[in-house]
Amino acid sequence: MAGKETITYTPATSTHYGDMDEFAQHKPDRAMIIGSGIAGMAAALCLSKAGIEAVIYESRTSSRDSSGSFFGIHPNGRDVLETLDIADSVLAGGIATREFHFSNHKRSLATIPTDIVTIERGAVARGLLAEAVNRDIDIQYNKKLTTVDQNENQVMASFEDGSRAYGAYLIGADGIHSKARRAVFGESPRPYYSGMVRSSAITENVLGIKPTYGTTNMIMGRNAFFSYLVRQDGYINWFSNRFDIQEPLRGEIEAIQQADWKADLLHLYEDDNPIIKAIIAATDVQIQKYPVYDMPLIDNWHKERICLIGDAAHTPSSKAGQGASMALEDAIIIAKCLRDMPDPPQAFATFESLRKPRVEALLRKTRKSTDSRTPRTVVGRFIADLFLPIDLKIANQTTRRMYNYHVNWDELVKTNKH
């Protein structure tokens, strides 16, 4: 893999006070949300609960399915879904995961308790979409944001198809490569390559491996990390993290043929637990594969009537598994702020003051505890295996306290006076 220029941005115009005559023709009081992922959908649902109309603008031509991709919803994420009365429907296909079992190529290392629901990303997306449709939330597809303008009363979003939309404010929920963020803050900061490439799939359990009943196995391989969970319905969720120092070109990983990628993975785990190769070899569905990017902490999440949430504002380490849950937290808290404060800039300033300390503390802790590479030497592996149980238990105690987080919907948000 070669090359440093991996992402070509089409910059959106920085926000500024637009043409007053054009703005005067439109006086909408609705919210505009850019992005229909978990953050965007959840924000629309929370705003609906608060009695605020929202329109979602999605760049894709249809809702995403994300077949073969799965993640964990932690207690803090489930808490938001329960407040919306949709936890049962959205998480219906999930698997209650109670522990992580860590091992290396030779022996067991540690078992760490957890409390997450492991679920397919597409199932969550479909559940949120169904509820949005049920609540008559307007979702407009094929809307690729190009520029954003605002005056003291409203925001105008322009799209690649030549159309424009107007709202009282705009919430950017369009992910780590957010065009809304670039429209507000320009090209800096930019996502950076984490050094990790992830592969994942949900494959039929033709091997007859016994279900793991709430245990996810984490294997520290000689060259890469591997995780699998054997479901009771006859399928296996698995993912692989490999650490490639050099950043791939944009689309380079995705362009590799499945047979070649599969062969490469089999070679990667040649000297590890045989069950890894068996699971990969038995996979006859599309293997998802992509380089993982992180975001540096950014100084501001909002500018007047425009605010960022979810991965557009902050991106937890993918190894921490908190992206979806933190996005759900953002959604409910920004809705509360807008419900309780008539002035959007003040609501957004308060939202940022409430969220930033918690989010940045969690980001620092999870990045520190998960920023590890598979040691390549015998001595390195020995040292890592020796200290891993202690490190995991300390990290687990810290993060579990942070993950058991409740947002009281009925509690009024106090005005930010700064």
Write structural notes for this entry.
This protein is of the alpha/beta class and 418 residues long. The chain folds into two domains: 252 residues, FAD/NAD(P)-binding domain (3-Layer(bba) Sandwich); 101 residues, D-Amino Acid Oxidase, Chain A, domain 2 (2-Layer Sandwich), CATH 3.30.9.30. The protein has twelve helices and 17 strands. The strands form three sheets. It has an eight-stranded mixed β-sheet with strand order 3-5-4-12-13-14-11-15. β16 and β17 form a beta hairpin. α2 runs parallel beside α5 and α2 packs parallel to α10. The protein starts with 19 loop residues before the first helix and ends in a 15-residue tail after the last helix.
